[in-house]
Request: fold
Amino acid sequence: MAIGGAEDKIKKRVILSEFTRMAGGENAKIVIVPAASMMPRERGDLYATLFRELGAGDVDVVHVANRPEANSPAVVELLERATGVFVTGGVQLRLISMLGGTAMSAAVNALLSRGGVYGGTSAGAAVISSHMIVTGRGGLRVRRGMVDMAPGLGLVHDVIIDQHFSQRGRLGRLIASVGLNPQFLGVGIDEDTAAIFSPDGCLEVIGEGQVAVIDASKVTSTNLDVVAKTKPFSIVGLQMHLLTHGNRFNLRTRNAEEPSEMIRLTRSGKKA
Reply:
């Protein structure tokens, strides 16, 4: 579950409730990782309180401040018992430099392999993919030099995730990212919105905003290989899909799917 940040923590709490349900509800064993935050104690305590209020059976917070701690057997043992791990927001470069290639990262991958769930908000969402945006500049004037990338945790492949998408004007930098890496889909997630990646190769949207999917597989021409990094580049044949709550997108066929009958009835105001 990749969350675009600023998810509702007070009212309906749709996204956090769904994560709790996916992790097992009253049988959930959730581990919170606030390592990306500059205030990890406060962030960890906040989410621990929220998940307990939402009915999670067991909630722990793991504090790691460096790579040796991310290789700690005690941390790995806790993740081996978990049904869900939740990574908070903060600075994604801080997070990936601390966790990438560690025993903790391997334990998160193992959790997914046995049917557990990963949830990440803001920076915790950005690091999910195998290639991630670490820094970049907003705006619609697309330039090759407006984004910097690095390897991510590799929990989801063949996508590049950006967060706070509409709120911070990040369409340009996501287009630049997929222009440079056309084999990947760009997934831009608004605040209080989540993209759920399932084992069947589909992405499903929940929440109040939009998820933009940028597809460069049908691009016919671009001049980004010859234009200066600070200059705008051309890209012809780019596709973009805008998805909202209930929409599904097949990552393998790169086709959007209609919302389910239940979602359509709920949206229309009729009883599902």
The radius of gyration is 18 Å. Residues 40-53 form the longest helix (14 residues). The chain has a mean pLDDT of 94.
